Predict the structure.
Amino acid sequence: MRVLLTGGAGNIGRVTLDRLLAAGHDVTVLDAAPLPEGLGAASIVADLTQPACLDDLPEAPAAVVHLAAIPNPFVATWDRVLAVNMPATFNVLRYAAEKGVPRVVFGSSESASGWGIHGKFYRPDYLPIDEKHRDLPSEVYSYTKAFGDQLCAGFSREH
Ligand SMILES: NC(=O)c1ccc[n+]([C@@H]2O[C@H](COP(=O)([O-])OP(=O)(O)OC[C@H]3O[C@@H](n4cnc5c(N)ncnc54)[C@H](O)[C@@H]3O)[C@@H](O)[C@H]2O)c1
């Protein structure tokens, strides 16, 4: 199927790209960084905080895998983590809803659950934690991922 992979030039994105191509999918990578040539996927260099960048896509995909983000609170200022992660996820979901894309896979984070990068008072409701555990974000990156979880839940309900 035709898959749009955001963040496909990044660490997890490259592994995901390999898996998607190996499974026979037709992949377009949209990333702020260029994809090295010869990997077998179309590459669009764009900034997902700008919703217009999605208008130029030639055809709606059958699925979107959304991994593009600032992946932790240590590699950018907190302002930038907020300014990238939240609008990028919103823009991807709005695009998918408008185009009728039936499936979006969102790269959230264990940090949204409170695990991983966590606050001083982190205490899970139960162990082992799993995807049903409520979000307990405690710092800027995990706030953006928990926001993404909420957006996904909302868009899933509405669309
Ligand atoms: N690495 C981890 O341990 C980990 C754990 C949990 C979740 N995640 C999530 O997985 C995803 C991928 O993480 P990663 O470790 O591969 O990070 P990475 O930094 O290697 O890859 C992220 C990619 O997103 C792109 N990107 C950033 N801002 C963008 C923008 N405005 N528009 C378009 N592209 C943009 C970057 O260019 C980069 O290629 C992220 O959403 C991250 O939050 C990562």
